[in-house]
């Protein structure tokens, strides 16, 4: 099987808090009949647009990917590990929390729900005054939390984080959160769809019903102790003609941004596949003598065995690269090699 970069087709998912225009990522999606909240880029139902698995879904293809494509460290991972989405909140999302892996495993009714969810968000756009709520203020207890749901004052117990374009926020499992309107986010998370909704602003769906809440499960998984998520303090490094911004490394994903206006060289690791999420710009991915054109809002999966490749921009390009890391070897070592002090990189590492 020929090793080539693989383009995935997005899936557009309606949500009551979504938007009717998906600018700037999908300018052709305007005046939509139904609000779209999420665009799934690596959902198991997403289909490959190119390569030997063209027209097959990611879920099916993953099972047939040879270990050298998945990456040696992912050879035994049964389901695709990383879920990448774009979010277009036009209204607030519900206030929610996700369980960690061990809770998800103990309480899941299906093998498909055996992962918890740690996630991060990268702000692609943010209008003046936009923000998110992430984590509890000091002193919040299960009792005061429960009371504030009844009083509709839960927002007051959460930390508000102002968001500007280019910011990134880390949300470990067990951290209560919601996203305000006025941002377009790229969300990178463990592949899981378990959400415990605790407050939905007393909204009704198109059918006139409130969405289900899961307060009891939420109270079991919420971290009422010291909070560890929030806005990240990224590290920017200029290396040749690329500016790299390192955001975070946890056991599930490591994420960085690359910005470049000239041809750059890169190489995949045999240990893991890479996802390249193009935010802006266009050009070509050159690998093994082949060229594939890239454009904004596309996600490409690079098999681990691809090896050396080049990105050849025809316009200045920015992308997010994310992968399943071995934190020390892939992340810490790389920064330490560039003489970044521990005091700087340690803020980005959540072991
Ligand atoms: Zn969430």
Can you lay out the helices and strands and say which pair or pack?
Layout: E1 6-8, E2 11-19, E3 36-40, H1 58-64, H2 67-70, E4 82-87, E5 95-97, H3 101-107, E6 119-126, E7 131-136, H4 142-150, E8 158-162, E9 168-171, E10 177-179, E11 183-190, E12 196-199, H5 215-221, E13 230-231, E14 235-239, E15 242-250, E16 254-260, E17 264-267, E18 274-280, E19 283-287, E20 290-294, E21 299-302, E22 308-313, E23 317-323, H6 327-337, H7 342-345, E24 349-350
Parallel strand pairs: 15-24
Antiparallel strand pairs: 1-21, 2-3, 3-4, 4-11, 5-12, 6-9, 6-11, 7-8, 7-10, 9-13, 14-15, 15-16, 16-23, 17-22, 18-21, 18-23, 19-20, 19-22
Zinc ion (ZN) binds next to loops.
What can you tell me about this protein's structure?
- This protein is mostly beta strands and 351 residues long.
- It has two domains: 226 residues, Jelly Rolls (Sandwich); 116 residues, Jelly Rolls, CATH 2.60.120.
- 14% of the residues lie in helices and 36% in strands.
- The chain contains seven helices and 24 strands.
- A hairpin with a 2-residue loop joins strand 19 and strand 20.
- The two termini are 36 Å apart.
